[in-house]
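User: I'm preparing a small set of examples for a lab meeting where we compare how different chains pack in three dimensions. I only have the primary sequence for this one, and I'd like the structure in token form so I can line it up with the others. Please keep the answer compact; I'll paste it straight into my notes.
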Amino acid sequence: MSTIEIRKIGITSLAADAIVNAANDGLWAGGGVCGAIFEAAGERQLQKACDAIGHCDTGSAVITPAFNLKNAKYIIHAVGPRWSGGMYHEPQLLYSAYRKSLELALENDCHSIGFPLLSAGIFGYPADKAWRKAIQACQDFLSAHPETDMQIIFAVIDDRMLALGQETLNELNPDQDISSKLLIKGALYDVVFFHLPEEPNGYLSNWYPATFAIDGITFSSTEQYIMYRKCKIFGDEESASAILETNDPARQQAIGQGASGFEGTVWNGMKQVVAYRGLQAKCSQNEKLKQQLLDTGDAYLVECAHKDIIWACGIRLTEEERFDINKWRGQNILGFALMEVREAIRQDQV
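Assistant: Understood. Below is the structure token output for the 350-residue chain.
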């Protein structure tokens, strides 16, 4: 049976098939957790193995033998992101670093793995956000590999970090189904919640990478299409072109939000129509996404982002208020547009 737990222990003292090093992209010996692992494993031989690999991208991981570490077979070197305010894909990259580490453990027949809290030290990632992303990544991995027997252990030495981690683990109960019931005027309806591309039901996100074409132009996501059309509507050709030049949805969003000539009343009247067209193309031109959308049945589709009161419901994916429509703080435009696209696809199949 797979488990996730948090212990107050130094990571080099932890007994696990693999322990994870909070690495830098050059795979050099460093300070903190990294320095402790290099020292315990034997710095010269571990550095030689890392030099043979040469580099590891942020959000990825590589594996080496554990050398002198007596309680582990492997060291997995995971490179988390440096925190820059969350606008440069830090959550996605942190999630990916955990996911890649777990995939390497699975590929090398490991049944236990020990993690530090990646990026939360000198890389400056806020501890509460780092815990949330770490536990989400591990829970998602175990859900995707139900046949796997994997013991996941987080090793911390600070009481405050231990308490914060345990609180987050208890909150993100893996037994809590994100597909549940939504209360509307005393009646209960099926509902599917979503937020980021790397989280459950992430294929519904505007940031989810999915190629489609409209009017002879190929787009990498619905975010790119919506921001492109926003700039075109207000005659900002320079920004529209810049949006097409990047596949980074955060960058696309930033450019679109600064569109010159923007008029709120016009955009308020057009944004859902624009979103509908992009979502319809995304889902109709990608068979897997189409089927995933149809598989939601008649459920309400609800984006959960607590800072977004326009496209989302204004509630976090983990907050109980999301189950009661009267407690929403947002309009959930994206979710309702997706529901209309789902119905249109159904009608086309009749």
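A couple of notes for your slides: Residues 191 and 300 are 4 Å apart (CA to CA). The longest strand covers residues 187-194.

User: Perfect, thanks.
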